[in-house]
Write a structure and sequence with these properties.
This protein has two domains: about 5-15 and about 280-395, Aspartate Aminotransferase, domain 1 (Alpha-Beta Complex); about 20-275, Aspartate Aminotransferase, domain 2. By secondary structure, the chain is an alpha/beta fold. It has helices spanning about 20-30, 40-60, 75-85, 105-115, 135-140, 165-175, 195, 260-275, 280-295, 325-335, 350-355, 375-395; strands at about 5, 70, 95-100, 120-125, 145-150, 180, 200-205, 215-220, 300-305, 315-320, 340, 340-345, 360-365. The protein has a seven-stranded mixed β-sheet, sandwiched between helices.
Amino acid sequence: MPDRIYMDNSATSFPKPPAVTEAMVRFAEDCGASAGRGAYAEAKACERLLADARVAVATLINAESPDRIVFTLNASDGLNIAIRGVLNTAPAGSHAIATALEHNSVLRPCNALAGQTGLEPEFIACDGRTGLVAPDDIRAAIRPETRMIVCVHVSNVTGTMQPIDAVAEIAREHDIPCLIDAAQSAGHAPIDVQALGADFVAFPGHKGCLGPLGTGVLYIRPGAEDRCKTMREGGTGTISEVATHPITMPDKYEIGSHNAIGIAGLLEGVRWLLDRDVAAIRTHDEQRCEQFLTDTDGVAGLSVYGPRTIADRSGVFSVNVDGLAPGELAARLEAGWGICTRPGMHCAPLAHKTIGTHPTGTCRLSFGPYTTAEQVATATTALAEVAAGARAVAESA
């Protein structure tokens, strides 16, 4: 088996900084307590851990204060909290806008609400070549009944980086709650939530933030919590003498004991990003993108989807080779070069319809901060060789 080359960072980042694992082991061995559930030293240490993690995440995205940071199970959980919190009680006939490049974590809650409450979701078409949405198309779709606008920041299929600043501005102009899915951008590119002005930004801890699985964040702009009802209620370890759920942030959206061991790892992942500066990580990503696009340009039989302009994309590449199913391409890349990719539909069926790859999908390669120029060179060489081999088979048939 060749040396492993991990190119599935869109699913979850790997490797993690060593400090991430070390912090989780340290918590398991030395603390193990639940914040707010005791007055002893270990419980207080867990409280400090959560506070430190909120500060670090707030710093990463320039949140107004740490209490704007809600810890979630993952990005899907955060998206559901915002979507259902705003739309669950909206009257029948209410309208929501999203894009055709959304992940199922947006498509499915919206479509479920269509059946449950009579919500009318509208998914705005994106350019079939670049995947970019035109902000004016979102503006034109707004109705008096529009109750929410959702936009993915970076597509997990095409790597397209959407103009979320313009989308958030349109939402503010019409006083419509705006939710940004930053699952593929947080940690990969700078995000300034105060400059952005979106009401909600959801992202996982285990992707660009380099933390472990089972961690996530929902940022809520000051005042936006008044428009987002709770989905769940329960213990918070605070004001336990009251039988109604707290309305203060972030307790309003956090119930039960936290995944403290995961948050310990997330804190170290975010510290790693802060130490290195996300702008520098974005530059690294741009360099890998340019290298991949240059080295695959003109390879016969190889299709590379998404923007060709570096400013409009991230290091997420969907590809296909003529004559091969995505799963077969992925298998050959792993068997011959040890390259780990993800074939299929990537939980984003409308995105694949947009680029013309539905229902078979594509083979996806996605980069992270540890992806080297040498690894990208190996991947592009491998794709060229596989494409040449497939051409040879087709010509001899």
